[in-house]
Every structure is written in C-alpha cells, then in structure tokens.
Amino acid sequence: MPTQTATVDNLTVIGIDIGKDVFHIVGFDDDGRIVVRRKIKRLALVQTFEKLPRCIVGLEACLSAHFVSRTLRGLGFAPRIIPAKYTKPFNKGQKNDYNDAEAIAEAALRPNLKVVPEKSQDQLDLQALHRVRARLVSRRTATINQIRAFLIEQGITVRSGAAALRNSLMTILENRADEISPRMGDIIIGLYEDWLWLDERIETTTDEISRISKREGHCQRLMTVPGIGPIISTAMVAATGTGEAFDRGRDFGAWLGLVPRQHSTGGRPILGRISKRGSKYLRTLFIQAAHIILMRAHNWPKFSFGPWLERASQRMHKNKLAAALANKLARIAWSVLRHDRDFDAHQIEATAI
Length: 353
Prior knowledge:
This protein has 353 residues and is of the alpha/beta class.
C-alpha cells in the first residue's frame, strides 16, 4: 500500500470521495504515482489538508461538495467539482471508496472536462427554498389524489381540478353522510386539513422566493424575458449563478435537456426526442412558461421571436412547439444573465412563472 513519502512534495492532484462521516483521499505526484492514500474523518479535513502541498483537488458533485470546495479554496487549493457521470469511465477494478477517489483524481486532470461551478451560500439557500417548495407541491398533489381515491371508493366522483374538489368537498361530506362511514369522514377531513396546511406552507415559501427576486438584480433582468417570473428567475440563478459554466446559450439548453437526443454515426445525423438531461426541475419550469405563452397567441407579434413562433406553430405539434419555445426562452435567459442586460424593452407583460 503506497504511503506518504518525500515525493508528496511533488503532489499534483488529489481526489476525494466524500462520505457522510468519512472521506477517502488519493493523491498523485507528477509521474502519476499514488503518494497519498488515506481515510480521514470529516472533522479532520482542514487539519489534514493544511499539511499537504497546494494542488488541484477533485470532488464528485454530491451532498456537501460545495461546502468542501469552499473550505479547500480558502486553504489555497484549486478544487474542481466533477459530475459523477464523468468520473465513472476512470474507475478501475471493483467499486470501493479508494478506487472512486482515484477515479476522481484522474478525471480532475483532464483539461477539457466540464466541471460544476462552485455555488455560493446564497445560491444554496435559494436552491433549498425551491426544493422545499417542490416537495410541498408534490405532497399536496398526493394528498388531493388520496382524497379523490377515498371518495371514489365510496362511489363518489368529483370533476377534475383542485378547485372543484375544494369547493365541493364539505358539501359532499354533509349531503352524503349516509354513504360515508364516520371513520372515513374523519380520515378525509384530516386529509383536507393537511391540504390547507400545505397550501399555507407553499404560499409562505413562494412569498419568500418572490421577495428574493425583487432584491436580486440578476432575477430582475431575467424577469424581462416573456414568461419568466420570480420562480424561474430565482431557480435559474440558484442553479447557474451568472451562467459562466456555459460558453453559449445552446449549451445551456442542452444542459436542460431541451435539445434532440443525438445518435449519429458515419456522418449521418440522427436526432430523436429531447434528451431530458440536466435539471428536470428547471426544464419543467421553462416548458410551463412556454405553454403559457402559447395560450396567448394574440401577444406573439409583440415579442421579438414572434415571427418565428408564428411560422413554427403552422408546422409543429403543440407539445413539440412548447419544447422548442422553452429552448429558445432558455437561450434568451442565459444571454440576459451572462451579458447582464435586459431583454428587448418593447416586449409586453405576460403571465410569468
């Protein structure tokens, strides 16, 4: 087993496999030989790296990777957060923590490898707000569906839509009490109370996101793009910062998974459905924004991309058109964010997300 020797002075790169309580680190020297291979406690991170020469440190994008990256950058190291799918090809032998750390170290040396930009604490806080809101919305949907399922078990159906169920639920429980057992009635009332509590939590979280969007200059500029409101603007800033990770708008669209899946060979391009890679949450928001714009065709001529949208609507299915428009909105949003400028001043107000 390689141990730390005098050659540690020539340390070039270190790979860290981050665990909940324990980190595994593997370091290479200039000749590619392993000169550091050890397991350390999370609390000993700073103490251990203070004794090592300053070099490149590779980390796999995972929970607490941004915190570790900021800590190491403060010590003078050059951390690189690498997507997990890019480290997998470098993994040799069986799956274990040391082999993972070695693969991360090798991946960190590749000059053309795309890395994850380090998020600030404000970005992580904003991202946490969005994740909490998404979880609450999912729980609310599950609660509504469960109420409907219990009513159907009693032979009672309610037309689709949350508003329809909310407006008629108490009336159903009162007028059809002879068809619903007391116990089932109590269960449904309990679920309805959960629904009201979730509505309140979602509203509180949404209000907090809206307040942040009004204070953040990047969000204000993003909201000049049609269809983009507080939710999308803050989600985009939380995920990408100022968009410096992407060289151009089409790269951002590809990261969102809004471009066709490609399987080309022999010089013959073969394109399929959208790839659905990257951030599912942000991609969904952009597609929802696109659907909102498509619902208001009378506004299209007032947008700078209106002529394109008019022509595309004549030859595309509405869902395909929504994906194409979402890609265009994403590319416009990246340009606004990256170049720190507002969208066309002549654009009109539109319902935004």
